[in-house]
Amino acid sequence: MAHFDLPPEQLQSYRAAAPAPADFDAFWAQTLAEARRFDLNATFTPVRTPFVTVDVFDVTFAGWAGQPVKGWLTLPRARTGRLPCVTEFIGYGGGRGLAGDHLGYASMGYAHLLMDTRGQGSGWRQGDTPDDAPGAGPQVPGFMTRGIQSRDTYYYRRVFTDAVRAVEAARAHPAVDGARVAVAGVSQGGGVALAAAGLCDVQLCLPDVPFLCHFDRAARLVDSFPYAEITAYLKTHRGRAADVFGVLAYFDGVHFAARAQASALFSVGLMDEVCPPSTVYAAFNAYAGPREMRVYEFNRHEGGENVQALERAAFLARHWPS
């Protein structure tokens, strides 16, 4: 797809018009307080792998409503002292995979906690965390309209709560320097990273081609999935658009970005028909902390891929010099 969104000069200043709901902060404070009534109970079980330069641990911690969430913690084997940690979230439909699937950050000398995404992990990589969800109503297949009838039952309330608890689980490991924690992810993972950065104290945020931003524009601008799950739902549930977008406002990456203070490195593909450039820039321009953008003019949702991986590595090294 050629450039279809706003011209680059307009993207650089584009902002979403709608403010956050008046009780946005109160809603999330209550949500996290409810989750923290349950003991975090983070466990790290060593896993045997064929890799000789890293140690891998099977992670379990209590997420939303105390429900167990899985993950992997990967550490460089040759380590001295406590390490900065990258807490990473996964793209739509994927799961945590197998022990040893994720070696990049540990190979750079960082601790790396990868959070499994509840209910996903069957689309392109396996996962191990079910979504035990009360109050579920009709939905389009996928996750975008799961529990959309209410902010209290919406799927991403549980995922974003899990993400905050994942940061807390990372800090619970004795090898991790709790003062140096980053959140990161691509696509859905980038949207979850923005939510985590807006909800808890982290030092760095690395959202690549982030999903879950500026829902009302994305759903009206592109007909690609996963945003098309929302439009498919509204095609059937006629007259519910105001209610649906009212719920989604509590989960919009733009509003989390406006509350995030961590230094951030964003990326965008200007031909991205999955996460339109204007939705990424809406989050970027709302971001409250120091921020940088890497632009890939001729790329779609793949964004910068391995080139952006090197950008992330340089960004981390600049902020966390060895």
UniProtKB/TrEMBL annotation:
Transmembrane segments: none annotated. InterPro entries: AB_hydrolase_fold (IPR029058), AXE1_dom (IPR008391), CE7 (IPR039069). It comes from Deinococcus knuensis. Residues 121-142 are annotated as: Disordered. Residues 1-318 form the Acetyl xylan esterase domain. This is Cephalosporin-C deacetylase. It comes from the Bacteria. The gene is axeA.
